[in-house]
Write a structure and sequence with these properties.
The protein is an alpha/beta fold. The protein has helices at about 25-30, 35-45, 60-80, 85-100, 130-145, 155-170, 195-215, 220-225, 260-265, 290-300, 320-344, and strands at about 1-10, 15-20, 50, 55-60, 120, 125-130, 145-150, 175-180, 230-235, 245-250, 275-280, 305-310.
Length: about 350
């Protein structure tokens, strides 16, 4: 565990603080290869982090030094618990620390203390929240019956939903997972495609399959699909069903119509939960057709048992360039709307 040494100076806008870590080997892992973890902290928080053995000297603005302290102590605690610390881990903790407690949908940070990130553990992998929005989303999936994950690509909405469903299935809390996606490109008319129903919808559900194989052993996934414990179904085939003892995931929900969304949501049965994900800025419906996702979020937000998690470009956890691409498109959309309003 780390301990504080008295700061050399704590007056004015800058601060200096020395941290000491008891285990030299863990301290080396904390710093990263060639001190790359410390370099990332310096770059992101605007501090100077100088390692000397198992000591780190932090210098910079007082608030940034305190953030850096929290990051390093949280990462060191992860190492003490046997968790690996990689660049992605450092990035995650920095994001969490940079976010004020009041900005989080659910309480996840201890005031001026350790970062406590939500986790989803399956037999094959343990997924740790990498942004405050992911943290709130993961915690909401434990508490609510209907969860909407709304935001741009690359924020982990679908991946985390599948991970949560896989965990519940492995624990025996549910009997099956139902994966669905509107096949807008085929107009929900899949009969002309070759093969059985699974063959017809596989191209649309590939992202969901990819996530499943990350969470579960391939042979187990195949057995579950064969037995019906994992079911894939295009949205059009959900009509008339009641889904009990299941986690039902609807992906790309921005491409549902209002009627389709209402039909889907009313399939919810006993001991089940639904997770609906989508990006309202990527609607592929015919011009003039209202998105069922946009309407549902507006109508149902605030209802007991319903939680809406909203993601933005800051929550993108793919390549850093993806976040910049998302911001560019969002800026262009805002400009077009402003021009349209001005002409009106």
């Amino acid at each position: 565990m780390s301990r504080h040494l008295p700061p050399s100076s704590d007056h004015g806008p800058s601060s200096q603080l020395e941290l000491a870590f008891e285990d030299n080997k863990l301290a080396a892992q904390l710093y990263g290869d060639f001190d790359q973890h410390l370099a990332l902290i310096e770059q992101r928080l605007g501090v100077q982090a100088t390692p000397r053995g198992n000591h780190v000297m932090l210098k910079g603005p007082a608030s940034a030094v305190d953030q850096a302290r929290r990051v390093l102590e949280s990462l060191y605690e992860m190492l003490e618990e046997g968790q690996p610390v990689e660049v992605a881990s450092v990035d995650s903790v920095i994001r969490m620390v940079e976010t004020e407690d009041s900005q989080l949908t659910l309480p996840t940070l201890e005031k001026k203390g350790r970062v406590r990130m939500a986790q989803i553990a399956t037999r094959k992998a343990t997924i740790v929240a990498r942004t405050p929005a992911q943290d709130a989303y993961m915690r909401a999936m434990d508490r609510a019956e209907l969860i909407f994950g709304v935001g741009p690509a690359g924020t982990g909405k679908t991946y985390l939903a599948v991970a949560h469903a896989a965990t519940l299935l492995e624990r025996g809390d549910i009997n099956r997972i139902v994966l669905s996606r509107p096949a807008v490109e085929a107009g929900e008319r899949l009969g002309f495609l070759p093969g059985d129903m699974k063959d017809k919808v596989d191209p649309y559900l590939r992202p969901l399959y990819d996530a499943l194989y990350d969470m579960m052993r391939p042979e187990h996934v195949e057995r579950c699909i064969t037995s019906g414990m994992i079911e894939v179904a295009p949205l059009a085939f959900m009509r008339g069903r009641t889904l009990a003892n299941a986690v039902v995931i609807l992906d790309e929900a921005q491409n549902t119509t209002s009627m389709q969304m209402k039909m889907f949501l009313t399939r919810l049965g006993e001991n089940s939960k639904m997770i609906v994900t989508g990006d309202p800025t990527q609607v592929d419906l015919p011009r003039g057709e209202k998105s069922g996702l946009v309407e549902a979020v507006k109508l149902l937000d605030g209802i007991e048992g319903v939680h809406v998690s909203r993601f933005n470009d800051k929550d993108v956890v793919r390549h850093a360039l993806v976040g910049r691409i998302v911001r560019a498109y969002e800026a262009d959309t805002a400009r077009r709307l402003a021009e349209s309003d001005a002409r009106a």
